Amino acid sequence: MADSLPPEMLVDLYRLALDEYRFEVRLGWDRTTYFLALNSAILGVATGLLKLDNPPAVYLFIALLFILGVGTSTIGSISIKRNHEYYRRTIVKKTLFENRLGLTDAIADMNPSLNFSIGTTPGQGGYLRILEDPEKYVFGKLKPHSITFWLRGIFVALAFVDLIGAASSILMMIYGSHSGHLTSFQSLFKP
Fold it and tell me: What value does the mean pLDDT of the chain take?
């Protein structure tokens, strides 16, 4: 039945697939910026509080803030991976419609790699690879040169910094902010 869809319906479905593609790209970026801003705010507030002389209970609160930062960084990283899978699913659907509409066919008298399909990234150019094994494409590893890969790395780095902040807060809570044990350590946080 799907093979017998009229071309007009395929074009309409193709337009919907392109809209879904744009939606997933926008949603992924919006989520990423939200988690980056949230974690940056948590890190900024917690670090600012860490610079002050505080009673032990406040250091516990600061440690909890840093731990919240670890959580938001982890969720942000997972969100990027999940959204990338959603994005790739829309690429599979878009490519399927392009193939059915003949948009992936080579253009006569031109370079064989040229066609009318929308391939804004190198990964989208390999339409045969996408259509031969869609699940492998959707769940494939992130390429080390991709923006998505580096954004996940930023979240891992933020989580690491948050962990150091949490450990620092706990040490300051245990040993006290005026103890000689942490004088040189605390100087890292003092202006």
Answer: 86
Domain coordinates of the chain in residue numbers?
Answer: 2-186
Q: What whole-number distance in Å separates Cα of residue 167 and Cα of residue 126?
A: 47
pTM for this predicted structure: 0.80
142 Cβ neighbours under 8 A, 6+ residues apart: 81, 84, 148, 149, 152
CA distance 110 to 102: 16
124, 99, 84, 93: which is closest to 16 by C-alpha?
93
pLDDT grade for 137, boundaries at 50, 70 and 90 = confident
Q: Is the dihedral of CA 66, 69, 71, 77 positive or negative?
A: negative
Rounded average pLDDT over 119-132: 78
